Amino acid sequence: MSSFFSASSENTTTVPPAGSFRLQVLKMMGSILLFFITYGLLLIYAGILAAIFLWAGVSLIMFAPLHPITILSVFMFIAGLGIIFMGIMQVLFLIKFLFTRQHQDLSLRIPITRKEQPALFDCLQQIARSTKTRFPKKVYLAPGVNAAVIYPVKFMNMFWPVGKKLEIGLGLVNSLNVSEFSMAIAHEFGHFSQRSMKLASYVYTVNRMIYNMLYENQSWHKTMSWISSRWIVFALLAHINLRIVSDIQKALRLMYSIVNKQYMRLRREMEFHADAVALTVAGTDAAISAMRRLEISGFFYEHCLLQLPEMARQQRRFGNIYEVHRSLIRLYATQHEIALDAHQLPLVTDNYFSSFLLSRVQLPDQWATHPSREEREQRYMAANISKTIKGESAWHLFQHAEELQEHMSSLLSQSFIQPSAEYAPYPVENFIADTATRIKDYSMPAIFNEYYDNRPLPILPEGNITPLSDEQMATLSVSTLYSENKVQRLRAYFRDMQDADTLHAIQQGQIKTRYFEFEGKQYPVTAAGKVRAKLQSSIRQDTEWLLAHDTQAIKYHYTIIFQKDPAYAQKIQEQYHTLLEHQATCWQLNDIVARILHNVSSLFSEQGLTVVSAQPYFDSLIDEGALLKKILLRLKQIPEVTTGWEGALQEKISHFLRYNYNYVKGNEPIMEEITNLHEISTTVMDQYNNCIILMKKAWLEAVL
């Protein structure tokens, strides 16, 4: 390790923050100051109202005729107590966040020491020297594909320094070589050196205060509800109090927007500065390759996590999820012709990213905390810092690496497994083989060059497939029909359709933005309609081209079959119409399921929802359930579809078809019925969509 860091440690340098960074720090300080001024004014406002309430309450109690005791004196005494209580509740609303506790979840973090990992700590120490930053107070290992600075987030931490800690994700270690890993860690050390990190503590505290006053009010509302139910006068006072609190919350929402939008801008500058610090340690090449590898790695790590619940249901488990993660990346690289280096890490080149068509409509992301990969790479290349690359896997820095991987894999699985149950290990080679088989099963024949991927089978305008003439056939071939430029034009067409929808949403005000970019040029919101009209003209031309080309391609394959075997050609045509019917049914099912999911989500996410106000959602579930029953009855008659329905799903479908679900009884939702509807609709939809993909693949193979 010393040989790698010797050059860096000799040339330690402090990277001064850019002028834009300092400007955003000043703006951030101003936003935080504005919040505390606003909060102070709200506190004074609530205090004045509380004092008025207190004065009014005490006055009522003092002037209540105590002898003899009358109904009027009792009324004044109780009303006075109620008014005093309401005044106290107003002030309590603004300071109750002081009494809430925040606990950091350390269940998936493993603390490590120099004694346990000497090579890693030597590496961290060298990076700290190179970046002239203080060594972290503690170092933790975490499961994800990231590294991060963590620190206590308590209200009192705003007033004195706290020791920062370093979190290293094993998914990150799994994805990079030593130089790239050093780049990632040096980036975090760059954050250690930023005084503006102190502002993060203030922003977090501000957000906790605002969030508490906007959403964590259950106990406060219960108390208000209890006191208002005691007497009609208290109910009136509570209503006044709630109106005052509602006005306070409006001011808090405005401040939340101001503080956090500014913090997002500061975060971007902090990221750029941390990158500049890290570049002095690892160099341009390591920085670019690290970003590219992590983009691919993050996707496959999430894919691994998504397997855990289903595997637990099947009573299987991964012994080492990081071995699975590496194997998936290698499988993907092989299938997409991405070369691997000597240490089996992917070499992600410019050509890989050039194959993706990016949207031509770009919106300013005011909530983005990190710059895009493209933005960062531009700065890396502009810096053009050359450093020697250490190509070994970052696991070379860790002792007992396999034990760490297995231990973290066990921690990740704990949320999904039952302690008393037996779980069979799922060998990595078996999982990869199953995954490769599944990919192969659902992949269209390669000869079509992905032309029919991720889209329904085209519908011919005249309905029937008819043969082409000899003259037409002479000009066509598989290579010309499915050439790369044809496929790219198809992808551009669907991209433009999506861009047109985005522009329409901007035009209608559904997307709130100050401006947008189209093909790199900035436009005001008022120009969205004009740009969309221009784009739609191109879309209309491509729609006509695509319809003509789809028709020509399908007729080409049909003609070849018809010339050899007319009877088989008739069978191909019948299968084509059957597949189109399945596609139409599947679109209906997808629409029904989307509405069911919307209603279920609304039932459990909308705040303040009562059974009465939720009744439209229950009524909608009944309507959508009736439509779902019709489709299920139709699908039950098709063996190709029902083959994938397991026994438990079959039982739930039978129960659903046999009984009329109402989803609510009295004042309580019927959770079993809602859960069954949700599970049946989503599972059947997923399986039917997969079934149609296999049908389409079988038809395309048949026409060959």
Describe the structure concisely for a colleague:
This protein is mainly α and 704 residues long. It has 24 helices and eleven strands. It has helices at residues 2-10, 19-63, 71-95, 118-131, 170-173, 178-192, 197-215, 218-228, 232-282, 284-313, 321-335, 350-354, 373-383, 401-413, 428-441, 470-474, 478-481, 484-507, 528-564, 566-605, 615-635, 639-642, 647-658, 671-703; strands at residues 110-112, 139-142, 147-150, 165-169, 316-317, 361-362, 424-425, 515-518, 521-524, 664-665, 668-669.
Q: Describe the biggest sheet?
A: 4 strands, mixed
Helix content: 55-70%
- Provide the spatial order of strands within the biggest beta sheet: 1-2-4-3
Label the structural class: mainly alpha
Number of strands: 11
**What is the CA–CA distance across the termini?**
57 Å
Oligomeric category: single chain
Q: What portion of residues belong to β-strands?
A: under 5%
Which word captures the global form?
Answer: globular
Question: Could you name the ranges where pLDDT drops below 50 across 5 or more consecutive residues?
Answer: 1-10
Look at the structure and give the mean pLDDT: 86
Q: What's the total helix number?
A: 24
Rg from C-alpha positions?
Answer: 32 Å
SSE map:
Blueprint lengths: L1 H9 L8 H45 L7 H25 L14 E3 L5 H14 L7 E4 L4 E4 L14 E5 H4 L4 H15 L4 H19 L2 H11 L3 H51 L1 H30 L2 E2 L3 H15 L14 H5 L6 E2 L10 H11 L17 H13 L10 E2 L2 H14 L28 H5 L3 H4 L2 H24 L7 E4 L2 E4 L3 H37 L1 H40 L9 H21 L3 H4 L4 H12 L5 E2 L2 E2 L1 H33 L1
Parallel strand pairs: 2-4, 5-7
Antiparallel strand pairs: 1-2, 3-4, 6-8, 8-9, 10-11
Helix pairs in contact: 1-4, 2-3, 2-7, 2-9, 3-9, 4-6, 6-9, 6-10, 7-9, 8-9, 9-10, 9-13, 10-11, 10-13, 11-15, 18-19, 19-20, 20-21, 20-24, 23-24
